[in-house]
Write a structure and sequence with these properties.
Layout lengths: L2 H27 L11 H29 L10 H31 L7 H35 L4 H29 L3 H22 L3 H30 L1 H6 L2 H30 L10 H31 L7 H32 L4 H27 L4
Helix pairs in contact: 1-5, 1-9, 1-10, 2-3, 2-4, 2-5, 2-7, 2-12, 3-4, 3-6, 3-7, 4-5, 4-6, 7-12, 9-10, 9-11, 9-12, 10-11, 11-12
Length: about 400
């Protein structure tokens, strides 16, 4: 086994676990209390978190490319190329935050969580757009700062920016959705309509501005397709959570582990995808349908990594639950559910990650542009599914 890559993967997973436990604590300790008022909020969580990671992760990846090519300087300033990227990214955020609010309202209605009333649709959409706009105030400068400083200190931004930005997106999503819910609760219908109208108008202006630039227009065209695929997958993850809402509220401690569980699954899948992509580009492996020995060794390494990582998720999450008096199950049950669900998830993601990357390579697409965004979204769906499956098997939901 490649112990060097194992230790690096474990370190990345450890950082993600600690960061997402903050979101898990806020989800179980605070936001879960708002589910009785606006139940479809739980459906909104996966597409909101994934959208931030994908939009700003791609933004950071492009900044790394610009730095390597000398198109921008490693200085903390907004030049025309960065400005065009910001305009396109904000347009995507506005577009999909409005879409997420409307679609999740309908999904909540189909699941019997809420009536399909104008106020419900308006409230959930305003929560979605407010949290997205507030996150932009943090995510845009953070993305630029991480990319520029990593390059300035001699690190490769491609190895640093995307993982950190994805983690940052996950960390801010739940707190900002909670803050947005508190703000929306204090708004009347007219105020909500004004806020939504202003954001929609901003989206139109950003589109008109971006459409004049070749760089921004290309970003919008390519990202609209990939993000559409990703959010459709994330709606599936939200639907699974929504269907289990009653049981999850009764055992709020389970909510504590959901963000780190999904994030760590995504990390394992994305690391596998990135390595397979590099090996394909370097000609070190062939894009065969049946995985070769080197890939099978990577599969085994991921299972070992999963045992360590998901044990850590269960124990740290349970520590938070006990310390903060959050209703939970016994530590043995929490550990069994998390580790078994994690092993099932790793088994699935090993094959899906490998087959997706090799398929994209065989049909002439760059796996780096296809693999990670789609795998991240698939991890939300499969991770949610495997975790809920184990909760059902243990009779908890």
């Amino acid at each position: 086994m490649d112990w060097k890559s194992f230790k690096e993967s474990l370190f990345a997973s450890f950082l993600c676990t600690l960061g997402d436990l903050v979101s898990g604590f806020i989800l179980s300790g605070f936001l879960s209390k708002k589910f009785s008022i606006l139940p479809a909020l739980i459906i909104l969580l996966p597409p909101s978190a994934d959208m931030r990671g994908n939009v700003y992760g791609a933004f950071g990846s492009r900044l790394g490319t610009y730095l390597h090519m000398g198109r921008i300087e490693a200085k903390l300033k907004v030049d025309p190329i960065i400005a065009e990227n910001i305009h396109a990214s904000l347009f995507l955020v506005v577009t999909f935050s409005v879409l997420n609010g409307v679609v999740c309202s309908y999904l909540g209605y189909l699941l019997g969580l809420n009536p399909l009333s104008p106020d419900i649709i308006l409230s959930l959409t305003v929560v979605s757009v407010l949290s997205s706009m507030l996150s932009a105030l943090f995510m845009i400068p953070s993305t630029i700062l991480i990319a520029v400083l990593s390059y300035r200190f001699g690190w490769d931004p491609d190895n640093v920016t995307s993982p950190l930005i994805t983690l940052a997106g996950d960390i801010v999503t739940v707190p900002l959705i909670y803050l947005s819910v508190l703000l929306v609760e204090r708004m009347g219908s007219l105020t909500k309509a004004i806020v939504l109208s202003f954001v929609v108008l901003l989206g139109v202006l950003l589109f008109l501005k971006s459409n004049k630039s070749f760089v921004a227009r290309r970003i919008m065209r390519e990202m609209l397709l990939i993000l559409s695929i990703c959010v459709l997958i994330d709606y599936g993850a939200g639907t699974i959570l929504g269907g289990s809402l009653e049981g999850l509220i009764a055992i709020a401690g389970i909510l504590t582990i959901i963000p780190p569980f999904l994030e760590d699954g995504g990390v394992i899948g994305c690391i596998l995808a990135a390595r397979v992509s590099s090996w394909l580009h370097l000609g070190e492996i062939e894009p065969t349908f049946v995985p070769g020995r080197r890939i099978r060794e990577m599969f085994l390494q991921n299972h070992i990594l999963g045992i360590v990582v998901f044990t850590m998720v269960a124990l740290l999450g349970q520590t938070i639950n006990v310390t903060m008096n959050i209703p939970t199950v016994s530590t043995a049950i929490m550990l069994a559910v998390t580790v078994l669900a994690g092993q099932l998830l790793v088994l699935i993601l090993n094959f899906i990650s490998y087959e997706l990357v090799t398929l994209s390579y065989r049909i002439g697409l760059d796996p780096d542009n296809v693999g990670i965004p789609i795998i991240t979204s698939l991890m939300d769906l499969m991770g949610t599914g495997t975790l809920v499956l184990m909760l059902v098997l243990f009779g908890l939901v």
